[in-house]
Amino acid sequence: MKSFEYYAPDSLEEAADILARFSGRAAVLAGGTDLIPDLKRKKRAPECLVNIKNIVGLRAIEEEEGGLKIGSLTTIQDVIAAPRLSGVHGLLRQAAVHLATPQIRVRATVGGNICHASPAADLAPPLMALDSRAIIQTPRGRLRLALDDFFLGPRRTALGPEDLLVGLTVPRPEGAAGTCFLKIGRTKMADLALVNVAVFVELSRADRRCCQARIVLGAVAPTPIRARRAEEMLVGNMVGHDLIEETARSAAEETQPISDVRASREYRKEMARVLTVRALRAAVDLAETAAAA
User: Which long-range contacts (CB under 8 A, 24 or more apart) does 106-109 make?
Assistant: First the structure.
């Protein structure tokens, strides 16, 4: 492992100064469950390591107007245990319990899982399905960026060399909504997704037609992707068995999977279709229940 300078700032301002000084040559340490193995394997060789664990206020799940705010240092175990993550926000808990092992979940952070930008990241699809936005501290001030625009490629994000992800906002839908997250891996637990999918469906209380839908697939393209053509097929329609099957086929056609040692391209495409069918059925059932309440 190459030697590096180490800093543990106590404030965002101090962290920003360090990132500016090393512009592009620093790595941010949160939980370290991805970064430390990368350093040991020499996949990364930063000149500086910035441990942000001491910065107060970045580990929290808080109510805010219109939804929730999740700090970037919130651990995966915090997500699982959070009482505020109920209703549609429970989608995040569904994904978190499938992420790695209990030993990793107590250290791994929400921000780290997002910033690592793995196409197979388990939290990215549910956060995108819930229309979340990244809260980014930049040298020019704080901005909010839709997660749809955050991921640029494998291990590539919209963060600049001096930017820091400080949290995420997750809106609360006003209508009758249902969600579902599903994942398939080579083993039942503690494995990267071969395919994962998160679905959000909102129905009109008046006529039960779909008024909003988001279908997000992971591990089937260079980034987590919205199946936008499939989403458009649902909006404005009554969502029944035939439409769900047709929509899932469309979603699978929008994927761009690869073949590797873990699964073939054809298998991933078929599993994208199958998981989308199952997720849509579950989400629509929940939305129907909410509409009837």
Answer: 106/75, 106/76, 106/77, 107/31, 107/32, 107/33, 107/75, 108/31, 108/33, 108/34, 108/75, 108/76, 109/30, 109/31, 109/72, 109/73, 109/74, 109/75, 109/76
Does residue 262 surpass a pLDDT of 70? Answer: yes
At position 208, the amino acid (one-letter code) is R
Q: Which residue is associated with the tokens 């970037």?
A: 72
User: 160-205 pLDDT, tens per residue?
Assistant: 999 999 999 999 998 999 999 999 998 866 789 999 999 999 999 9
Backbone region of residue 118 per phi and psi (left: phi > 0; alpha: psi in -120 to 50; beta: other values): beta
d(CA 82, CA 53): 20
How far is Cα 24 from Cα 172, in angstroms, rounded to an integer? 36
% the chain with pLDDT above 70 = 99
HEC sequence for 140-155: CEEEEEEHHHCEEECC
Q: Are 159 and 136 in contact (CB under 8 A)?
A: yes
Does residue 41 register a pLDDT over 90? yes
> HSE on the CB side for 3, CA within 13 Å?
0
Residue whose C-alpha is closest to residue 181's, from 245, 128, 242, 108 = 128
Given a contact cutoff of 8 angstroms between Cβ atoms, the answer to whether 125 and 196 are in contact is yes
Which residues, in sequence order, are CB contacts of 98 under 8 Å at separation 6+?
Answer: 122, 181, 183, 189, 196
Phi, psi of 104, deg, nearest 5: -75, -40
Residue 253, C-beta contacts closer than 8 angstroms, at least 6 positions apart: 229
| pLDDT for 1 beyond 80 | no
Contact 201, 210 (CB under 8 A): yes
pLDDT at position 261 is 93
Can you name the residues that pair with 240 across neighbouring β-strands?
none
To the question of pTM greater than 0.85 for the whole model, the response is: yes
Closest residue by Cα to residue 120 from 283, 267, 257? 257
